[in-house]
Design a protein that fits this description.
Layout: H1 2-18, H2 40-57, H3 61-74, H4 79-91, H5 95-108, H6 113-123, H7 127-144, H8 149-161, H9 165-178, H10 183-201
């Protein structure tokens, strides 16, 4: 369960990097992943982070960990370097280390929805009680960031583990409505098709 939870956050982060710009409703700023990297150090950190995300998605955990460390070494003020490190720690089932990494990211970008989502997903590693906590955090985040595909998609993913099919459907339907052509929108649509097929088969 832990690895799959982390994997879906990875997909969400990648989609946030590649998808349509969605300003933060609280600050009118773009999520960090959609901001232009200014300066050599920030550009290196962003490049290492994006490469590390690709390695992590491919399951090349050790290389992803190296890229996370290189990103942080390049620019200790770049939040997504710590996000990547948190995701790697989730894959490694290192819950406390993952929490620490996302907390560090949030010190640098306290209203970034991707960092907040990563932190919420750590709670989902702790069994039923943790999933309930994660579900509550993500529901609150959706209220704060109603146009964030990362938030709404991962709310549906946690709901799936909690067997809350109604929330799964509404969350993933919302993710598709936000941007059906993004990587995350396409994934949500495919998962909805599978869910609907299972319902019909049952």
């Amino acid at each position: 369960m832990n690895t799959r939870l982390a994997g879906l956050v990875v997909v969400g982060m990648l989609a946030g990097c590649a998808g349509s710009p969605t300003p933060n409703a609280e600050t009118s700023e773009m999520p960090v992943s959609q901001q232009v990297a200014v300066g050599d150090a920030r550009q290196r950190a962003k490049a290492h982070t994006e490469l590390g995300m690709l390695y992590l998605r491919e399951g090349r955990i050790a290389v992803a960990l190296d890229e996370a460390r290189l990103a942080i070494e390049s620019d200790q003020g770049y939040p997504l370097g710590y996000n990547l490190l948190g995701l790697v720690r989730m894959y490694l089932k290192e819950e406390k280390a993952a929490e620490d990494s996302f907390t560090r990211a949030l010190r640098l970008a306290p209203t970034d929805p991707e960092a907040l989502t990563g932190r919420a997903m750590v709670d989902g590693m702790s069994g039923s009680a943790g999933l309930a906590t994660a579900a509550g955090r993500l529901a609150a985040l959706q209220q704060r960031f109603p146009t964030s595909q990362v938030v709404v998609f991962n709310r549906g993913w946690v709901a799936l583990y909690r067997q809350d099919v109604a929330t799964v459907r509404t969350s993933w339907t919302r993710a598709v409505a936000l941007d059906a052509r993004s990587a995350l929108g396409r994934l949500a649509a495919a998962l909805l098709d599978r869910l609907n097929g299972q319902g019909a088969g049952g």
